[in-house]
Every structure is written in C-alpha cells, then in structure tokens.
Design goal:
CATH class of the largest domain: Alpha Beta
Strand order of the largest sheet: 14-15-16-13-12-17-18
Number of domains: 2
Radius of gyration: 23 Å
CATH architecture of the largest domain: 3-Layer(aba) Sandwich
Distance between the termini: 72 Å
Strand content: 15-25%
Bound molecules: NADP nicotinamide-adenine-dinucleotide phosphate, magnesium ion
Helix content: 25-40%
CATH topology of the largest domain: Aldehyde Dehydrogenase, Chain A, domain 1
Largest sheet: 7 strands, mixed
Length: 510
C-alpha cells in the first residue's frame, strides 16, 4: 500500500529565547545551585539544550525557608480574590506564550508538537484558570467555613507531562493559600524554568513558588525537609513507596499519583473504527509515557481478529520522527534509561510466549526511539500484562463475558484508569460500577478536564488532583469561629501588588 508523502513541517525554534544556563528559582530570583550542574538534552537528537543548576541540601533549605517566609508574611495573608488574580494572570501569560512553551516542551521532552500545542499547554492554562476561580470560594470546597492551607508544599513531578504536572500541582496549592517548592524531573526541567520567568512577568511575590532543579537526590532532600507541611508526588510506584515510608510518622500530609496499567475494554457491539482510534489514543499518545494509558486492550473474542487487523493497519500509518514536525504522531522516548526499560520489558514479553508485532517505522539515526508495538496471545500472568511499560507497547487480552472482562480489568496491582467501548449506555454504567479505577472513560480515552478529579486506587496512589477534590489535598478544616481569620482585614485591591503591601501591614488573627 502506498501512502501520501508528507513534506516536513517543522515548528521553528526561533521563537525560543533560551539562556545557555539556568539557575534555581528561589525567592523570586534565579541563583546558582551548589550541586553539580547538568545538561538537559533533546531526546530526538541528543543535542544539549541548556545547562541546569542542581540543588544540594543547602539550596533545598534556602528554597524551603523562602517558601516559609512567603507563606507566613505574604501569601497566607492575602485575600482569596487577590490570590485568584495572580492565578488568572499566570493563566493568561501561559496562553500568550503558548507557542513558545509548546516548542520548549517538545524539544526537551520528545513529545510531538501537535500534542504539546493542542493538549498539554491548553490544559496547563485551563488548570490555572480553573483554580483561579476557586481561590475566593474556598468556603464551598466542602470543608466548612474558612478552610486553611497547610503551609509549605513540597512537590515532585515526572518527565512525561512536565508543564502539565507542574500546573496540576501548583495551581490548587496556590489557590488554597499554600506556598510551593517544586522539583521537575532531571530530563525535562526547561518549561518549569520558563514558568519561573512567567512568575516574574506576573509580578508574583517572591518565595510563593520556588523551582529547584536536580535529580532524584534533590527530590529526596526536598520531601525529607523537616519544614515542609505537605508532600505531593507524581511518579513511579517504587519512589512513591519510598516517600510514603519517609513521611510516615511525621506531621506531613501526603498525596501520591503513581503508576498504572489501564484496561481498555472493547465489546463486540462497539463502533469499531472509533474504538481503534481510542485504542491508539489510549496507548500511543505521548509515546505511551502516560500513567493512565490504556496499555491493556481487553477485547471480546468475537471481534479480536478484525480489531487487531484494523489496529495494525492504522498503526502502519502513524508517522514517527521529529517531535517538532507538525505531522509527527510518535515522538522520541524521553531518555536512554526509559528506552532500555521498554526494550527489556518487551523482550520479556517475547520470552514468555506472547506474540510481538511492531509497526514498520523508519527510525532516525540519532535519538531514542521505539516503534508502536502490540503483543497478542497475552495471558494475565505475562509480565507485559502486569508491569507498567510506560512506552508505546500494547498488550492484548480477550474475554467472552462481561464478568470475565471486569475480572481481567481488575486483575492488576494498579487502579488508575479504564475505558469501555460499547453501543449500550446501560452496559457502560454497569461495567464502570465494577471497575476499580479512579477514572473510567466511555467510548473515549485520555480526556482531561480541570474540573474532573483524577487519581488512583491500590498501587496507583492516593489523593485526587483536579476539581474540588484536588483542593482538598491542600486544605484543612477551618479554625473554630472565635479564631476565624477575618478576610475583611485585607482589602480586595484591583492591584494585587498594592494589596500585598497593605497585607504586610495587616496582622493575621490566626
Ligand atoms: P520517578 O522515577 O518516580 O520520578 C518522579 C520524580 O521523582 C522525578 O522528579 C524524580 O527525579 C524524582 N525522584 C526520583 N527518586 C526520588 C526519591 N527517592 N525521592 C524523591 N523524589 C525522587 O518516575 P518517572 O520515571 O520520572 O515517571 C514515570 C512514572 O510516573 C510512571 O510510573 C507513571 O505512571 C507515573 N506517573 C503518574 C501520574 C499520575 O498522575 N498517577 C502521572 C504521570 C506519571 P529525576 O527524574 O530527576 O530523577
Ligand atoms: Mg530533556
């Protein structure tokens, strides 16, 4: 079969005005870290992008102290409406700089520009707009009148949706009145540092948001710092376990968003071509580096052969290559370490007896790449059906009855997401009720909205992000009425900066 040839349509990097080196963003300023600087590279070309500071113990301490000061003297004293104005301002600046942010994200992470441009960055802005709206309505969050922030939030995020995970963490924390120290992943710090520039543009008071870069050790130092009140982590289940152990027995509140092995269940009455698109979107979106990916296809036996044939033919049309090309469907794998993991888990699948098929893609000579791959003849005991591969690899299982589909879908240590494809609304409701997954999509997959809570069961973590529930991760019930903070003391100024100056003169009652 011959396909249309696409002329290259690369997005220009000229829009980016990057510095060759980035410091840590602490107390409103970029400063050099005391750890060993490292480089962030493009995973599609292996070219260096910028040199990044590394925060050591002393830097982590300085960042947490800045966040503490800012919490005590500025942010927690502000009227919610004023906090909201800052968040609205950030949201608008993200929209204004969206093209630049999309290019930076795709360059640093390897994801296709059409995803960063049409999914990641619009959702980042949406998250800030959404929580900006909540900032002066916390009394309606479900914790009674005048709920209180925790204080300083330590936030550690992964590399798969760098700026979006930052937004999921920072927007609700700030809306609730907490201050933040955030550590992006070592391989994708760029957009978090551009976000620090956006904070400067937004005239954000110093210390409210601090961005510290570094590898896992910097994250460990941050979550273990004695002066943080709240730890929010998104990443692997193994590191999540370590963090849970580290904070147990301390005063710190914890939310964990961890891995997944989502089931995408296709019944024989499903609209089959739509289901094929949904399966592709479920597992090949963002190279499968998606915690809630539909990495297990559970298909009714009667349509298995037809569906797999259509799926293979659809995968053969996906274009793998330059993430900055607007025609690219599959970008680069984020790091050599992740590529090795995907290769090792895929080889294990073959050794265990599953049948491997990969799309016939031309792999670029440099960079980290893996073709869209399907495993058929998979049983629930195979490692490709159990372990999170976090790459463009789909494992296919079959079922005969709805009960069997549900049992297979729930047969996993994870519980983050699931999908159901069927023509019958009643079946959607009945099956969704039985699935132990935090989010269940029906006749679609991988859809996100800031008003919708997201999070897992079992080894996928605990706590929710998004929606009203996402606020509860950053708030506690209000003080007794006699000690209630009077927001009337802090005027709702048209100028947040003026309001801060006034607020500095206002004594907090609590
Ligand atoms: P990871 O290795 O757990 O890393 C996540 C973050 O934690 C990174 O910033 C990492 O730093 C840091 N880190 C590593 N070791 C640490 C430690 N001992 N203490 C504190 N921080 C530490 O996970 P990943 O491989 O980057 O991300 C992939 C995982 O994230 C997948 O399992 C995926 O399912 C999960 N994920 C979950 C969600 C969700 O919402 N449930 C969303 C996205 C991703 P460095 O990277 O700099 O080493
Ligand atoms: Mg990078």
């Amino acid at each position: 079969m011959t396909f249309l040839e696409y002329a290259p349509a690369p997005e220009s990097k000229a829009i980016l005005k990057l510095k060759p080196e980035y410091g840590l963003f602490i107390d409103g300023k970029f400063i050099s870290g005391h750890g060993k600087p490292f480089q962030t590279i493009s995973p599609s070309t292996e070219d260096p992008i910028a040199t990044i500071s590394c925060a050591n113990e002393q830097d982590v301490d300085v960042a947490v102290s800045a966040a503490r000061r800012s919490y005590e003297h500025i942010w927690s004293r502000l009227n919610g409406a004023v906090r909201g104005k800052y968040l609205f301002r950030i949201a608008r600046l993200i929209q204004e700089r969206s093209r630049e942010l999309a290019v930076a994200e795709s360059w640093d992470n390897g994801k296709p520009i059409k995803e960063s441009r049409d999914v990641d960055i619009p959702l980042v802005a949406a998250w800030f707009f959404y929580y900006a709206g909540w900032a002066d309505k916390l009394d309606y969050a479900g914790l009674g009148a005048d709920p209180q922030p925790f204080g300083v939030a330590a936030q550690v995020i992964p590399w798969n949706f760098p700026l979006l995970m930052l937004a999921w963490k920072i927007a609700p924390a700030l809306a609730a009145g907490n201050t933040v120290v955030l550590k992006p992943a070592e391989t994708t710090p760029l957009t978090a540092l551009l976000f620090a520039e956006i904070l400067e543009q937004a005239d954000m008071p110093p210390g409210v948001v601090n961005i510290i870069t570094g590898a896992g050790e910097t994250g460990r130092l941050l979550v273990n710092h004695p002066d943080v009140n709240k730890v929010a982590f998104t990443g692997s289940t193994a590191v999540g376990r370590e963090i849970a152990r580290a904070v147990s027995g301390t005063h710190k509140k914890l939310t964990l968003e961890l891995g997944g092995k989502g089931a995408n269940i296709v019944f024989e009455d499903a609209p089959i071509d739509q289901a094929v698109e949904g399966i592709v979107n479920g597992i090949f979106f963002n190279q499968g580096h998606v915690c809630c990916a539909g990495s297990r296809l559970i298909v009714q036996e009667s349509i298995h052969d037809d569906l797999i044939e259509r799926l293979k033919s659809r995968l053969s049309t996906l274009r793998l290559g330059d993430p900055l090309d607007k025609n690219t469907d599959i970008g680069a794998i984020n790091s050599p370490a992740q590529l090795e993991r995907i290769k090792a888990l895929s080889s294990a699948g073959e050794v265990e007896g599953a049948t491997r098929w990969s799309a016939d893609c031309v792999m670029p000579a440099k960079g980290f790449w893996f073709p869209p791959t399907i495993f058929t003849n998979v049983s629930t005991s195979h490692s490709v059906a159990r372990d999170e591969i976090f790459g463009p690899v789909l494992s296919v299982l079959t079922f005969r009855t709805p009960a069997e589909a549900i049992a297979k879908a729930n047969n996993t240590p994870y519980g983050l997401s699931a999908g159901i494809w069927t023509d019958k609304g009643s079946r959607i409701l009945a099956v969704a009720d039985e699935l132990r997954a935090g989010v269940v999509w029906a006749n679609t997959f991988n859809r996100f909205d800031p008003s919708s809570p997201f999070g897992g069961y079992k080894e996928s973590g605990y706590g929710r992000e998004g929606g009203r529930h996402g606020l509860l991760a950053y708030l506690k019930s209000g003080a007794p009425a006699t000690f209630k903070r009077s927001e009337k003391q802090v005027p709702t100024s048209a100028s947040p900066v003026k309001a801060i100056r006034r607020s500095r003169m206002t004594k907090r009652v609590v």
